[in-house]
Amino acid sequence: MTKRTAGLPCLVAAAIVLGACARSDRERPVVAGGNAERGRAAVIALECGACHRIPGIPKARGTVGPPLGDYRKRVYVAGRNPNVPDHLVGWIRDAPSLDPGTAMPDLDVSEAEARDIAAYLYR
Amino acid sequence: MLRHKLLFGVLGACAILLLGILAGVAILLSGAFSTAATEQHSAFTHWLLDTGLRYSVNANSGEIVAPALTGAAMIDRGRSCFRAHCVHCHGAPALSREPHGLGMMPIPNDLTESARDWPPAWLYYVTAKGVRMTGMPAWEFRLSDADLWATVAFLKQLPALSRVEYVGLAPLPPQTYCRSDDVATARRTEAYDEDKRGEIVLRQYACHACHQIEGVVGPDTNVGPALVDWRTRRYIAGTLPNTPENLARWIVDPPGVSPGTLMPDLDVSEAHAREMADFLFAQD
Question: Above 0.85 for ipTM, yes or no?
């Protein structure tokens, strides 16, 4: 490649590097006290995958509830509250108290466990 | 020898094409192309868009037959539509447009000139179908056919009105026209191919502003859940068993089905909701 023709490909390469900076994905929300590893174990133990499709959890291909992949990008929890840790934790702990008509059951999980699960979903 | 010349010619053309594509990618990713509405189009771009608009409107409005655009009642009806939906962006004789009509790019034109110069079928077509890549929406899903033609009838009067005449027009009766729940607007999709109707209707109610929808091109949004593989979903909004009937019911009145939901009542007619539901259930 001569010097004359090398300019443009270099510019394209530079632009692609620069373009990578233009991503605007949401940063991972921090769940105080939440541990994503413990959360993953809890998601498996509680069989969340029976109702939800959850990437990274074996056999989690349920279609009763919505898919939970890329959860941090979602704007709302259950279509009613802003998707911030406290709302997600509250929903995981006791969904029917927030929406009496929901098919999502009260899972009877502790606050700490719900925080772990939230941390995993936001991972 | 000739074969060689041809080969080099083709190779050269391919190289130029490739360089052009690379240059385009470079400009896009470097951010050198400004998307700010404060930047104006080049004269060539503007000419291209404007000419394209005229030729497209001309070619597509050929079969539209205008009714008689006369009668005080029709013109008054058109005036109520104009005041409800047009004046904000386009302005009127001696009347400024609203702020959003001032800062748009491209600028919504002043309608007095196009109303004077364009045939009624063109005005009807642009009003009904909107204009891509501008802020002009398709009004055929908002207004009845009678309201669209009444609007054209009023537009045809507009260029002849002085300031005094426009401002001095008798006050309008309470808005009884130009409402989307007008029964006449219930089905506007019949003119479209059956397999395209659902997609058009979903877009006309801005569903893709909040949902990623298989089969509808739109923003990479995460406001509502993605509407993908819809048939496999068991519940609607976590509440209703997922059947086409229930889905239509939910689309027509989300807060009525699930109080507290942030999905708004979008004033969707029963017929349109059914078309949306059918489209989502027909996804591969």
Answer: no
DSSP string covering A23-47: --PPPPPP-TT--HHHHHHHHHHTT
Digit-coded pLDDT (tens) for B197-250 = 889 999 999 999 999 999 999 999 999 999 999 999 999 999 999 999 999 999
SS3 B111: helix
Contact B26 A74 (CB under 8 A): no
Q: Encode burial over B100-129: b for 16+ CB neighbours within 10 A, e otherwise.
A: ebeeeebbbeebbebbeebebbbbbbbbbb
Whether the CB of A19 is below 8 Å from some CB of chain B: the reply is yes
- What is the CB neighbour count within 10 angstroms for residue A53? 18
Q: Across the interface, do B19 and A99 touch by the CB < 8 Å criterion?
A: no
Give the torsion through C-alpha atoms of B258, B259, B262, B268, to 10 deg. Answer: 70
- The helix/strand count (H/E) of chain A reads as 5, 2
**Contact assignment for A22 to B237 by CB distance below 8 Å:** no
DSSP category for residue B175 = -
Per CB-CB distance under 8 Å, the chain B contacts of A79 are: 224-225, 237-238, 258, 261-263
Q: Cβ separation of A73 and B29 shorter than 8 Å?
A: no
Query: pTM for this one?
Result: 0.82
CB B111 within 8 A of CB B105: no
Q: Which amino acid type is present at position A29?
A: P
* Six-digit token string for B93: 């004789």
CB B221 within 8 A of CB B210: yes
Return d(Cα A23, Cα A93) in angstroms, integer.
Answer: 33
Give the Cα separation of B183 and B192 in Å (integer). Answer: 19
A15 → closest Cβ in B26, B229, B257: B26
Contact B30 A14 (CB under 8 A): yes
- Closest by alpha carbon to A65, among A75, A55, A53? A53
A75 touches B at CB < 8 Å: yes
Q: Give which of B30, B12, B14, B13 is closest to A8, Cα–Cα.
A: B30
Q: Does A12 touch chain B (CB under 8 A)?
A: yes
